[in-house]
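Q: What would this chain look like folded?
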Amino acid sequence: MKHSVARFRGFFTALALGTLLSGCGVVNHMVYKTTGDVMQGFSREHTIPYLMQSGDLAMGCAMSEATAPLLMSFGRVTSEPDQLAVMLYLSAGGCAEEQGREHELAALAALYERKGNAAEDAMIRQKRAYALASRRYLKSWEHHNTFYGEPGTGECPDFDDDMDEFIYLAGLLSGLQALNAEIQSTSSIGVPKNVGAVVARASSCLENDKWWGAPTALKATVWAMMPGALPEGEDAFERLSMTDRQGEEAGVRLSHVFHAIAATNKGDKAMVKAVVRQHAESLKEQPSNEDWAFVDAMATNMIVAISDRLWVENTGHRTPLGQLGTFWDDQQKEVETMDLDGLL
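A: My prediction, written as C-alpha coordinates:
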Protein backbone atom coordinates (compact mmCIF):
# COMPACT_ATOMS: atom_id res chain seq x y z
CA MET A 1 0.00 0.00 0.00
CA LYS A 2 2.81 2.36 0.91
CA HIS A 3 4.51 1.60 -2.39
CA SER A 4 1.30 2.35 -4.29
CA VAL A 5 0.89 5.68 -2.51
CA ALA A 6 4.53 6.53 -3.24
CA ARG A 7 4.06 5.69 -6.92
CA PHE A 8 0.94 7.85 -7.17
CA ARG A 9 2.68 10.65 -5.31
CA GLY A 10 5.60 10.46 -7.76
CA PHE A 11 3.21 10.43 -10.68
CA PHE A 12 1.34 13.52 -9.49
CA THR A 13 4.60 15.28 -8.69
CA ALA A 14 5.89 14.63 -12.20
CA LEU A 15 2.56 15.74 -13.65
CA ALA A 16 2.63 18.94 -11.61
CA LEU A 17 6.21 19.67 -12.62
CA GLY A 18 5.39 19.00 -16.26
CA THR A 19 2.41 21.32 -16.10
CA LEU A 20 4.49 23.97 -14.35
CA LEU A 21 7.30 23.73 -16.88
CA SER A 22 4.82 23.77 -19.73
CA GLY A 23 3.31 26.88 -18.24
CA CYS A 24 6.76 28.45 -17.99
CA GLY A 25 7.28 27.70 -21.67
CA VAL A 26 4.03 29.45 -22.54
CA VAL A 27 4.93 32.41 -20.34
CA ASN A 28 8.40 32.61 -21.88
CA HIS A 29 6.91 32.53 -25.36
CA MET A 30 4.54 35.35 -24.44
CA VAL A 31 7.42 37.37 -23.00
CA TYR A 32 9.56 36.78 -26.09
CA LYS A 33 6.69 37.67 -28.40
CA THR A 34 5.92 40.85 -26.50
CA THR A 35 9.60 41.79 -26.46
CA GLY A 36 9.87 41.11 -30.19
CA ASP A 37 6.83 43.22 -30.98
CA VAL A 38 8.15 46.06 -28.83
CA MET A 39 11.61 45.88 -30.42
CA GLN A 40 10.17 45.88 -33.93
CA GLY A 41 7.93 48.83 -33.19
CA PHE A 42 10.63 50.79 -31.40
CA SER A 43 13.17 50.20 -34.18
CA ARG A 44 10.77 51.36 -36.87
CA GLU A 45 9.39 54.35 -34.98
CA HIS A 46 12.57 55.57 -33.31
CA THR A 47 15.83 53.78 -34.19
CA ILE A 48 15.58 54.17 -37.97
CA PRO A 49 14.45 57.84 -37.87
CA TYR A 50 17.20 58.59 -35.34
CA LEU A 51 19.79 56.96 -37.57
CA MET A 52 18.52 58.82 -40.64
CA GLN A 53 19.17 62.11 -38.85
CA SER A 54 22.77 61.07 -38.22
CA GLY A 55 25.52 61.38 -40.79
CA ASP A 56 27.66 58.70 -39.16
CA LEU A 57 27.80 55.93 -41.76
CA ALA A 58 30.29 53.84 -39.81
CA MET A 59 27.98 53.81 -36.79
CA GLY A 60 25.05 52.73 -38.95
CA CYS A 61 27.16 50.02 -40.52
CA ALA A 62 28.29 48.66 -37.16
CA MET A 63 24.74 48.76 -35.80
CA SER A 64 23.23 46.82 -38.68
CA GLU A 65 25.87 44.08 -38.64
CA ALA A 66 25.76 43.74 -34.85
CA THR A 67 22.01 43.82 -34.27
CA ALA A 68 20.61 42.08 -37.37
CA PRO A 69 20.85 38.53 -35.92
CA LEU A 70 19.22 39.62 -32.65
CA LEU A 71 16.37 41.58 -34.19
CA MET A 72 15.71 39.06 -36.95
CA SER A 73 15.58 36.19 -34.43
CA PHE A 74 12.34 37.63 -33.04
CA GLY A 75 10.74 36.35 -36.23
CA ARG A 76 10.84 32.91 -34.55
CA VAL A 77 8.37 33.98 -31.85
CA THR A 78 6.33 36.72 -33.54
CA SER A 79 5.67 38.06 -37.02
CA GLU A 80 8.69 38.28 -39.31
CA PRO A 81 10.21 41.79 -39.10
CA ASP A 82 10.28 42.24 -42.87
CA GLN A 83 10.36 46.04 -42.93
CA LEU A 84 13.16 46.14 -40.41
CA ALA A 85 15.00 43.48 -42.40
CA VAL A 86 14.93 45.68 -45.51
CA MET A 87 16.90 48.36 -43.69
CA LEU A 88 19.20 46.03 -41.76
CA TYR A 89 20.31 43.98 -44.75
CA LEU A 90 20.56 47.03 -47.01
CA SER A 91 22.89 48.67 -44.50
CA ALA A 92 24.83 45.45 -43.87
CA GLY A 93 25.21 45.01 -47.62
CA GLY A 94 26.63 48.50 -47.78
CA CYS A 95 29.22 47.51 -45.16
CA ALA A 96 30.41 44.62 -47.30
CA GLU A 97 30.36 46.75 -50.44
CA GLU A 98 32.50 49.37 -48.70
CA GLN A 99 35.07 46.66 -48.03
CA GLY A 100 34.87 45.66 -51.68
CA ARG A 101 35.59 49.22 -52.77
CA GLU A 102 38.60 49.38 -50.44
CA HIS A 103 39.99 46.19 -51.97
CA GLU A 104 39.36 47.61 -55.45
CA LEU A 105 41.39 50.72 -54.60
CA ALA A 106 44.17 48.52 -53.26
CA ALA A 107 44.15 46.58 -56.54
CA LEU A 108 44.26 49.75 -58.62
CA ALA A 109 47.12 51.15 -56.54
CA ALA A 110 49.04 47.89 -56.96
CA LEU A 111 48.46 47.97 -60.72
CA TYR A 112 49.68 51.56 -60.83
CA GLU A 113 52.89 50.42 -59.13
CA ARG A 114 53.04 47.32 -61.37
CA LYS A 115 52.73 44.89 -58.48
CA GLY A 116 50.87 42.07 -60.20
CA ASN A 117 50.55 39.61 -57.33
CA ALA A 118 49.34 42.26 -54.88
CA ALA A 119 46.80 43.47 -57.44
CA GLU A 120 45.49 39.96 -58.05
CA ASP A 121 45.16 39.27 -54.33
CA ALA A 122 43.23 42.51 -53.80
CA MET A 123 40.92 41.66 -56.70
CA ILE A 124 40.13 38.29 -55.13
CA ARG A 125 39.28 39.99 -51.84
CA GLN A 126 37.18 42.51 -53.75
CA LYS A 127 35.11 39.78 -55.40
CA ARG A 128 34.57 37.98 -52.10
CA ALA A 129 33.35 41.17 -50.45
CA TYR A 130 30.97 41.90 -53.33
CA ALA A 131 29.60 38.37 -53.15
CA LEU A 132 28.75 38.91 -49.48
CA ALA A 133 27.25 42.30 -50.29
CA SER A 134 25.08 40.78 -53.00
CA ARG A 135 23.74 38.09 -50.66
CA ARG A 136 22.84 40.70 -48.06
CA TYR A 137 21.22 43.01 -50.59
CA LEU A 138 19.26 40.08 -51.97
CA LYS A 139 17.89 39.31 -48.50
CA SER A 140 16.77 42.93 -48.21
CA TRP A 141 15.06 42.68 -51.60
CA GLU A 142 13.31 39.44 -50.66
CA HIS A 143 11.99 40.86 -47.38
CA HIS A 144 10.84 43.96 -49.28
CA ASN A 145 8.82 41.81 -51.67
CA THR A 146 7.39 39.73 -48.83
CA PHE A 147 6.11 42.81 -47.03
CA TYR A 148 4.98 45.01 -49.94
CA GLY A 149 4.08 42.35 -52.47
CA GLU A 150 5.60 41.66 -55.86
CA PRO A 151 6.81 45.03 -57.22
CA GLY A 152 6.46 46.28 -60.75
CA THR A 153 3.11 44.62 -61.42
CA GLY A 154 1.26 47.89 -61.94
CA GLU A 155 -0.31 47.84 -58.48
CA CYS A 156 1.15 49.99 -55.74
CA PRO A 157 1.00 49.21 -52.02
CA ASP A 158 -1.03 51.35 -49.64
CA PHE A 159 1.53 53.27 -47.63
CA ASP A 160 0.73 54.09 -44.01
CA ASP A 161 3.21 56.93 -43.55
CA ASP A 162 6.43 58.49 -44.84
CA MET A 163 8.61 55.83 -43.23
CA ASP A 164 6.58 53.18 -45.02
CA GLU A 165 7.37 54.90 -48.34
CA PHE A 166 11.03 55.37 -47.49
CA ILE A 167 11.51 51.69 -46.67
CA TYR A 168 9.83 50.86 -49.98
CA LEU A 169 12.38 53.08 -51.76
CA ALA A 170 15.20 51.47 -49.76
CA GLY A 171 14.00 48.05 -50.87
CA LEU A 172 14.09 49.09 -54.52
CA LEU A 173 17.65 50.30 -54.03
CA SER A 174 18.58 46.97 -52.47
CA GLY A 175 17.34 45.13 -55.55
CA LEU A 176 19.54 47.15 -57.89
CA GLN A 177 22.48 46.91 -55.51
CA ALA A 178 22.09 43.13 -55.30
CA LEU A 179 22.37 42.82 -59.07
CA ASN A 180 25.29 45.25 -59.31
CA ALA A 181 27.20 43.51 -56.51
CA GLU A 182 26.59 40.11 -58.10
CA ILE A 183 28.09 41.38 -61.36
CA GLN A 184 31.08 42.83 -59.50
CA SER A 185 31.64 39.53 -57.68
CA THR A 186 31.63 37.50 -60.94
CA SER A 187 29.70 34.88 -58.94
CA SER A 188 26.23 33.44 -59.26
CA ILE A 189 24.31 34.63 -56.20
CA GLY A 190 20.80 34.07 -57.55
CA VAL A 191 19.69 37.65 -58.08
CA PRO A 192 16.83 37.81 -60.64
CA LYS A 193 18.20 39.25 -63.86
CA ASN A 194 15.04 41.27 -64.49
CA VAL A 195 15.36 43.15 -61.21
CA GLY A 196 16.38 46.37 -63.00
CA ALA A 197 13.23 46.48 -65.11
CA VAL A 198 11.09 45.57 -62.09
CA VAL A 199 12.63 48.34 -59.98
CA ALA A 200 12.17 50.90 -62.76
CA ARG A 201 8.45 50.11 -62.98
CA ALA A 202 7.98 49.98 -59.21
CA SER A 203 9.62 53.39 -58.71
CA SER A 204 6.49 54.96 -60.23
CA CYS A 205 4.70 54.16 -56.95
CA LEU A 206 6.67 56.91 -55.21
CA GLU A 207 6.28 60.69 -55.46
CA ASN A 208 9.36 62.02 -57.20
CA ASP A 209 9.26 65.52 -55.69
CA LYS A 210 8.74 64.17 -52.20
CA TRP A 211 11.75 61.85 -52.38
CA TRP A 212 14.38 64.27 -53.70
CA GLY A 213 14.10 63.12 -57.34
CA ALA A 214 15.43 59.67 -56.42
CA PRO A 215 12.58 57.58 -57.93
CA THR A 216 12.99 59.16 -61.38
CA ALA A 217 16.79 59.07 -61.07
CA LEU A 218 16.60 55.37 -60.30
CA LYS A 219 14.36 54.80 -63.30
CA ALA A 220 16.55 56.91 -65.62
CA THR A 221 19.65 54.97 -64.54
CA VAL A 222 17.99 51.72 -65.55
CA TRP A 223 17.06 53.31 -68.88
CA ALA A 224 20.66 54.39 -69.42
CA MET A 225 22.21 51.04 -68.53
CA MET A 226 19.78 48.47 -69.95
CA PRO A 227 19.70 48.09 -73.74
CA GLY A 228 16.20 48.65 -75.09
CA ALA A 229 14.85 49.99 -71.80
CA LEU A 230 14.69 53.66 -72.83
CA PRO A 231 11.11 54.68 -73.72
CA GLU A 232 10.60 56.53 -76.98
CA GLY A 233 10.99 60.27 -76.60
CA GLU A 234 12.91 60.02 -73.33
CA ASP A 235 16.50 61.09 -72.61
CA ALA A 236 17.91 59.35 -69.56
CA PHE A 237 20.66 61.89 -68.94
CA GLU A 238 18.32 64.86 -69.26
CA ARG A 239 16.15 63.23 -66.61
CA LEU A 240 19.18 62.71 -64.40
CA SER A 241 20.19 66.36 -64.74
CA MET A 242 16.69 67.34 -63.67
CA THR A 243 16.70 65.04 -60.66
CA ASP A 244 20.18 66.27 -59.71
CA ARG A 245 18.73 69.74 -59.20
CA GLN A 246 15.88 68.35 -57.12
CA GLY A 247 18.29 66.48 -54.89
CA GLU A 248 20.51 69.51 -54.45
CA GLU A 249 17.60 71.73 -53.45
CA ALA A 250 16.33 69.11 -51.00
CA GLY A 251 19.75 68.51 -49.44
CA VAL A 252 19.61 64.80 -50.30
CA ARG A 253 21.91 64.33 -53.30
CA LEU A 254 21.23 60.66 -54.05
CA SER A 255 20.57 61.47 -57.71
CA HIS A 256 24.23 62.41 -58.19
CA VAL A 257 25.18 58.82 -57.42
CA PHE A 258 22.79 57.43 -60.03
CA HIS A 259 24.03 60.00 -62.55
CA ALA A 260 27.69 59.11 -61.94
CA ILE A 261 26.98 55.38 -62.18
CA ALA A 262 25.13 55.83 -65.47
CA ALA A 263 27.95 58.01 -66.84
CA THR A 264 30.55 55.44 -65.75
CA ASN A 265 28.60 52.69 -67.49
CA LYS A 266 28.53 54.86 -70.63
CA GLY A 267 32.29 55.35 -70.43
CA ASP A 268 31.94 59.13 -70.31
CA LYS A 269 34.73 60.14 -67.93
CA ALA A 270 34.12 63.85 -68.52
CA MET A 271 30.53 63.47 -67.37
CA VAL A 272 31.61 61.49 -64.30
CA LYS A 273 34.01 64.27 -63.35
CA ALA A 274 31.32 66.89 -63.93
CA VAL A 275 28.92 65.10 -61.58
CA VAL A 276 31.60 64.81 -58.89
CA ARG A 277 32.36 68.54 -59.23
CA GLN A 278 28.66 69.35 -59.08
CA HIS A 279 28.25 67.30 -55.91
CA ALA A 280 31.23 68.94 -54.23
CA GLU A 281 29.96 72.41 -55.11
CA SER A 282 26.47 71.60 -53.87
CA LEU A 283 27.84 70.50 -50.49
CA LYS A 284 29.23 74.01 -50.03
CA GLU A 285 25.98 75.71 -51.00
CA GLN A 286 23.28 73.51 -49.49
CA PRO A 287 23.47 71.70 -46.13
CA SER A 288 22.12 68.19 -45.73
CA ASN A 289 18.44 67.73 -45.00
CA GLU A 290 18.27 67.31 -41.22
CA ASP A 291 15.77 64.44 -41.39
CA TRP A 292 17.72 62.53 -44.05
CA ALA A 293 21.33 63.42 -43.26
CA PHE A 294 22.30 59.74 -43.34
CA VAL A 295 21.09 59.32 -46.93
CA ASP A 296 22.94 62.45 -48.03
CA ALA A 297 26.10 61.27 -46.27
CA MET A 298 25.75 57.92 -48.01
CA ALA A 299 25.52 59.70 -51.37
CA THR A 300 28.64 61.73 -50.61
CA ASN A 301 30.50 58.61 -49.53
CA MET A 302 29.73 56.94 -52.86
CA ILE A 303 30.71 60.05 -54.83
CA VAL A 304 34.01 60.13 -52.93
CA ALA A 305 34.50 56.45 -53.82
CA ILE A 306 33.96 57.23 -57.52
CA SER A 307 36.40 60.13 -57.28
CA ASP A 308 38.94 57.95 -55.45
CA ARG A 309 38.79 55.33 -58.18
CA LEU A 310 39.64 57.94 -60.81
CA TRP A 311 42.46 59.38 -58.71
CA VAL A 312 44.03 56.01 -57.91
CA GLU A 313 43.87 54.86 -61.53
CA ASN A 314 45.75 57.96 -62.64
CA THR A 315 48.00 58.89 -59.71
CA GLY A 316 48.22 55.87 -57.41
CA HIS A 317 46.54 57.67 -54.50
CA ARG A 318 43.04 58.72 -53.47
CA THR A 319 41.34 62.09 -53.67
CA PRO A 320 43.41 64.47 -51.52
CA LEU A 321 41.73 65.63 -48.32
CA GLY A 322 39.53 68.65 -48.83
CA GLN A 323 39.82 68.45 -52.61
CA LEU A 324 36.70 66.55 -53.64
CA GLY A 325 35.65 67.99 -56.99
CA THR A 326 39.20 68.57 -58.19
CA PHE A 327 41.29 66.28 -60.38
CA TRP A 328 44.96 65.64 -61.06
CA ASP A 329 44.78 67.06 -64.58
CA ASP A 330 42.98 70.29 -63.72
CA GLN A 331 44.68 73.33 -65.16
CA GLN A 332 46.12 75.46 -62.40
CA LYS A 333 44.87 79.02 -62.32
CA GLU A 334 47.56 81.51 -63.17
CA VAL A 335 48.62 83.51 -60.15
CA GLU A 336 49.26 87.18 -60.82
CA THR A 337 52.76 88.16 -59.68
CA MET A 338 54.33 91.54 -59.18
CA ASP A 339 57.47 92.46 -61.11
CA LEU A 340 59.89 93.64 -58.44
CA ASP A 341 62.73 94.46 -60.85
CA GLY A 342 61.33 97.90 -61.59
CA LEU A 343 61.23 98.74 -57.90
CA LEU A 344 64.95 98.20 -57.38
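The chain has a mean pLDDT of 88.
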